[in-house]
């Protein structure tokens, strides 16, 4: 075979084949040779073996946007969210984070499955409230509500452990230089003498009532802030009906549901136990012998450099390792198990409490069963109304006629902005999905039935569109007048302060200047930057005194006027008194340097993993307008 290849390589056919390959590369530039790469799905972020698809990126951003909406209590679009925030900065941060996690896994920072499962199974939201058991169904449904999957949650938990362990190791023993603490202590213990007075609005004069010409000019200058945004009014059709609350549930249905749910609703046996995980079978046998001899788990753990794991009143379903669960629930009270081969190491368990399980009766869970059945019937009634509404619309009936025919409710929506605020800027209780639907429609059009969650559906119609426009002067006269006067008063006060500061810088005594404007001069010595002093003289005075050199003057705005003052003297702290505080500042600063240090390490890890992001693909995933085309960029740029 080898001789056959050698003869072929010497033939004219081999030379011809090489010429064809060379011509192909010359024409294509080698750009078509990555066949497998062209088959891969595009990714918004790529970092080593990790990546984020457009769908995953959209789901992640949706969760963050929902959190912002809950905090602000209003609907927010991606256009609004990224109007003030650089999408490139967000992508850069996420790509650096993903690059760090890819590097950490490659470097060997890999939290075990047992650790991840234990954290997830400790989340109360995943436990059935009746059985107190971990519910796989509840686990799946709760994650679906927040647009997550079990795989994504486990990956985030693993990433969180990697970040915490690496960060802890990074800052362990970190100490800031002594000079850092000395500088902070010196500034904090430093005392200053100064004199100051308050220049009030009355001393500077107040603005007269404005003319219409001045108000119109002011409105033009502030058009962006005064312009009334587009408003829309509409009608909301909801398919729930008050009569649904009175749906009667028959006893036969209650009994049938109870029989179906009886096993799941019954209270399981629960046990309190302690486990110790040893690295070898021999060590586990020694631990088991010591526990049987009467030693406490804490003492045995300390002797073997292990930390006992305590489980209080735990059902079998909450024990993630089947082998450990079988051993624990096969023991009697105060018995010690033989070493068990677990997923990680060898486990020895000791049971200290057993709470027998019991079957529930219909009387125990009757209310819960009735509520479940009522909810099911209500969702069924809503679904039937939606189907009947669709049929009526297809038959040519109007939205109002179809809604009345099926028994749906029509709720008027007053004129609101896209964020759900009325003309008086009050936030109305309009769901974000409804507002989003309204701004996808033109005047007079209605949406299709849309799911609102928990079996609810809605239809929204746009009745009127009020374009964005500047308000008439007479409609906002009082507001604009107050704003104009406030601006002019600030201008007058600032001009007076500038004149006073010019006199002080020219060498006039501060006492004479204060008397000339009718102000009262305050003189204080030995002032420090502590809360008590700030409460006495105000933040403006302290800010001016401690940010100005000795012999210099300052002006600081405060409520009701401007503080004008002079720093007369600076007294350095006593070294012995400042030493203890310097050590405290040093310890505090050492811990604070951990964040930037970790950020630098994360950036270096991302660079090593060649983390990149594609902003054009990210915009496409979020439905944002296209930006100027740019190639995928490294995470650090």
Structural class: alpha+beta
Number of strand segments: 16
- The span between the termini is 53 Å
Number of structural units classed as domains: 5
Shape from CA axes?
flat
Radius of gyration: 36 Å
GO molecular function: peptidyl-prolyl cis-trans isomerase activity
Protein name: Parvulin-like PPIase
Subcellular location: Cell inner membrane
Domain PpiC: 251-367
General description of the model:
Its main location: membrane. This is Parvulin-like PPIase. It is found in: Cell inner membrane. The protein is an alpha+beta fold. It folds into five domains: 2-39; 45-173 and 595-634; 191-225 and 476-571, Chitinase A, domain 3 (Roll); 231-246 and 367-466; 268-357, Roll (Chitinase A, domain 3), CATH 3.10.50. It contains 27 helices and 16 strands. Strands 2-1-15-16 form a four-stranded antiparallel sheet. It has a four-stranded antiparallel sheet with strand order 12-3-14-13. Helix 18 packs antiparallel against helix 19. The relative contact order is 0.16.
Features:
single chain, 637 residues, alpha+beta, Chitinase A, domain 3, 5 domains, four-stranded antiparallel β-sheet, 27 helices, 16% strand, transmembrane helix, PpiD_chaperone, membrane, cell membrane
Précis, in short:
Keywords: Cell inner membrane, Cell membrane, Chaperone, Isomerase, Membrane, Transmembrane, Transmembrane helix. With 637 residues, the protein is an alpha+beta fold.
């Amino acid at each position: 075979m080898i001789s056959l290849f050698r003869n072929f390589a010497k033939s004219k056919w081999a030379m011809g084949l090489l010429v064809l390959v060379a011509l192909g590369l010359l024409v294509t530039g080698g750009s078509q040779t990555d066949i497998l790469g062209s088959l891969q799905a595009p990714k918004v972020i790529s970092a080593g073996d990790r990546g984020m698809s457009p769908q995953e990126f959209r789901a992640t951003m949706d969760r963050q946007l929902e959190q912002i909406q809950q905090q602000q209590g209003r609907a927010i679009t991606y256009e609004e969210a990224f109007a003030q925030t650089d999408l490139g900065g967000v992508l850069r941060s996420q790509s650096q984070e993903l690059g760090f996690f890819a590097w950490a896994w490659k470097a060997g920072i890999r939290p075990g499955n047992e650790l991840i499962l234990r954290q997830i199974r400790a989340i109360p939201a995943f436990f059935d409230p009746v059985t107190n058991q971990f519910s796989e169904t509840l686990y799946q449904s709760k994650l679906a509500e927040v647009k997550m999957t079990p795989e994504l949650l486990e990956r985030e938990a693993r990433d969180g452990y990697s970040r915490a362990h690496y960060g802890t190791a990074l800052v362990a023993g970190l100490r800031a230089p002594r000079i850092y603490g000395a500088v902070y202590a010196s500034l904090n213990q430093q005392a200053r003498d100064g004199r100051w007075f308050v220049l009030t609005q009355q001393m500077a004069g107040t603005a007269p009532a404005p003319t219409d010409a001045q108000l119109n000019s002011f409105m033009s200058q502030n058009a962006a802030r005064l312009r009334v945004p587009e408003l829309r009014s509409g009608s909301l059709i909801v398919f729930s009906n008050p009569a649904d609350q009175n749906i009667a549930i028959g006893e036969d249905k209650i009994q049938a549901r109870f029989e179906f749910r009886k096993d799941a609703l019954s209270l399981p046996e629960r046990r309190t136990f302690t486990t110790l995980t040893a690295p070898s079978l021999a060590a586990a046998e020694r631990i088991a012998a010591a526990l049987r001899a009467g030693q406490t788990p804490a003492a045995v753990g300390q002797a073997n450099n292990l930390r006992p794991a305590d489980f209080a009143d735990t059902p079998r379903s909450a024990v993630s390792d089947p082998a450990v669960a079988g051993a624990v629930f096969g023991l009697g009270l105060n018995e010690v198990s033989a070493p068990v081969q677990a997923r990680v190491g060898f486990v020895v368990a000791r049971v200290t409490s057993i709470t027998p399980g019991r079957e529930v009766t219909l009387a125990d869970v009757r209310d819960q069963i009735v509520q479940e059945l009522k909810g099911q019937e209500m969702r069924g009634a809503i679904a039937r109304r939606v189907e009947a509404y669709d049929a009526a619309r297809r038959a040519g009936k109007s939205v109002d006629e179809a809604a009345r025919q099926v028994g749906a409710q029509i709720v008027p929506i007053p004129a609101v902005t896209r964020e759900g605020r009325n003309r008086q800027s009050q936030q109305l209780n309009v769901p974000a999905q409804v507002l989003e639907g309204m701004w996808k429609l033109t005047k007079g059009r209605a949406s299709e039935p849309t799911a609102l969650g928990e079996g609810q559906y809605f239809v929204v119609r746009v009745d009127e569109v009020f374009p964005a426009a500047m308000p008439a002067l007479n409609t906002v006269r009082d507001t604009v007048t107050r704003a104009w006067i406030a601006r002019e008063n600030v201008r007058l006060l600032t001009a007076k302060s500038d004149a006073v500061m010019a006199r002080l810088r020219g060498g006039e005594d501060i006492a004479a200047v204060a008397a000339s404007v009718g102000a009262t001069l305050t003189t204080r010595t030995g002032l420090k930057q502590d809360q008590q002093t700030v409460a006495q003289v105000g933040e403006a005075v302290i800010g001016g005194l401690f940010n100005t050199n000795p012999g210099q003057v300052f002006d600081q705005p405060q409520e009701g006027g401007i503080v004008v003052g002079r720093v007369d003297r600076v007294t350095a702290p006593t070294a012995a008194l400042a030493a203890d505080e310097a050590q405290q500042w040093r310890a505090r600063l050492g811990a604070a340097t951990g964040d930037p240090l970790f950020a630098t390490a994360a950036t270096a890890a991302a660079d090593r993993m060649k983390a990149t992001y594609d902003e054009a693909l990210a915009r496409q995933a979020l439905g944002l307008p296209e930006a100027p085309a740019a190639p995928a960029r490294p995470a650090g740029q």
